[in-house]
From TrEMBL:
<dbReference type="GO" id="GO:0005829">
    <property type="term" value="C:cytosol"/>
</dbReference>
<dbReference type="Pfam" id="PF01656">
    <property type="entry name" value="CbiA"/>
</dbReference>
<keyword id="KW-0547">Nucleotide-binding</keyword>
<dbReference type="GO" id="GO:0005524">
    <property type="term" value="F:ATP binding"/>
</dbReference>
<dbReference type="GO" id="GO:0009898">
    <property type="term" value="C:cytoplasmic side of plasma membrane"/>
</dbReference>
<dbReference type="InterPro" id="IPR002586">
    <property type="entry name" value="CobQ/CobB/MinD/ParA_Nub-bd_dom"/>
</dbReference>
<keyword id="KW-0067">ATP-binding</keyword>
<dbReference type="GO" id="GO:0051782">
    <property type="term" value="P:negative regulation of cell division"/>
</dbReference>
<dbReference type="GO" id="GO:0016887">
    <property type="term" value="F:ATP hydrolysis activity"/>
</dbReference>
<feature type="domain" description="CobQ/CobB/MinD/ParA nucleotide binding">
    <location>
        <begin position="7"/>
        <end position="227"/>
    </location>
</feature>
<protein>
    <submittedName>
        <fullName>ATP-binding protein</fullName>
    </submittedName>
</protein>
<dbReference type="InterPro" id="IPR027417">
    <property type="entry name" value="P-loop_NTPase"/>
</dbReference>
<dbReference type="InterPro" id="IPR050625">
    <property type="entry name" value="ParA/MinD_ATPase"/>
</dbReference>
Length: 329
């Protein structure tokens, strides 16, 4: 299942996504964690040292390798240089699976050992001063979108993406790539403003959205969130001494997380798992093609000098059956 964590900057989405990743790893569920935020903090939240040599390789720096591998023998793609972030797979494309070993994961993923399991961690890479004036962060996130477009995941396989803050997630079609989106909201007017934006944008694309209240300290906070987001409020997290220790770089064992917060993580897991029944691979593929054609017309054709609409394979649907017959590595 592909799961996104979104929310206002400072809402705690990276913290909660890291707790969910730890929960899945403890349940021995295969999980890939992706840091797609402009501020890269997921590695630290999972306990990795913040030194550069401890961070996972930047996906943005591996984009040529990613394109060449995913292209495979797809006859509709003349060269890796003509692939853009929304290029959809077709016959001959190589597809990614969560448990696979392949050149993309070899180059971009790092295994993180957690208390009771492990996760594969990937990251776009930080937006640095050298990027100013010559790049935008969305070009780096494009590596994530391209991988998600070629990734087939089954039940009890999880990809958890810590998205960039606020409504910036809508700068591309990546927000439609998920089975479930958890929007982290504090019990404040600013905290719920992003929810209203996201709800409006997501409505036309059938994006499954649930709100996770964070920093909820009492009945007044809970009542406020219920008034603001209604039935979309799924669960809340309160104060956590475990999280405070984690933020100081001294996390206790994960099984000592407060019982109420452990139960909240179980609710997230059950809700995400239940979304499998609503999976619509044809709609997923159709939305992928929609954003690709939109990007091709607005900038892709001019940038690559190719007719990118021709990359669309009308007979191809990305699903678990297509993964079973995928191009060998």
């Amino acid at each position: 299942m592909k799961i996104a964590f979104v929310g206002k900057g400072g809402s705690g989405k990276t913290t909660l996504s890291s707790l969910f990743i730890r929960h899945l790893a403890a349940a021995r569920v295969p999980v890939i964690a992706i840091d797609a935020d402009i501020n890269q903090h997921l590695a630290a939240a999972l306990g990795l040292d913040e030194h550069a040599d401890c961070a996972p390789p930047a996906m943005g720096a591996q984009l040529p390798l990613i394109k060449e591998y995913l292209r495979g023998t797809n006859p509709r793609i003349a060269s890796a240089e003509t692939m853009i972030k929304t290029t959809p797979p077709g016959a001959g494309s190589r597809l990614l699976r969560v448990g696979d070993d392949n050149p993309v994961f070899d180059a971009c993923a790092r295994t993180v050992r957690l208390d009771d399991g492990e996760a594969r961690l990937m990251a776009t890479g930080p937006f640095t001063e050298s990027d100013l004036g010559v790049a935008c962060y969305h070009s780096k996130v494009g590596a994530v979108e391209l991988c998600l477009n070629h990734l087939v995941d089954g039940r009890e396989e999880f990809i958890v993406v810590d998205m960039t803050a606020g409504s910036d997630s809508f700068a591309s079609g990546m927000f439609t790539r998920f089975d479930m989106t958890f929007l982290v909201a504090e019990p404040t007017r600013k905290g719920t403003a992003v929810y209203r934006q996201y709800k409006e944008y997501a409505r036309d694309f059938g994006v499954a959205l649930r709100v996770v209240g964070n920093k909820v300290q009492g009945p007044d906070d809970l009542a406020f969130l219920r008034d603001e987001v209604g039935e979309d409020l799924l669960v809340t997290f309160g104060h956590s001494e475990w999280v405070r220790a984690m933020e100081k770089g001294r996390p206790p064992r994960f099984d000592t997380l407060e019982a109420t917060n452990r139960q909240a993580l179980r609710v997230l897991h059950e809700t995400a798992d239940a979304a499998y029944a609503s999976r619509d691979w044809e709609r997923y593929t159709r939305q992928m093609v929609h954003f690709h054609l939109k990007n091709a017309e607005s900038w892709g054709n001019a940038r690559t000098g190719a007719d990118l609409a021709a990359q669309v394979d009308p007979a191809f649907t990305l699903d678990e059956r297509s993964a079973a017959s995928r191009q060998p590595a």
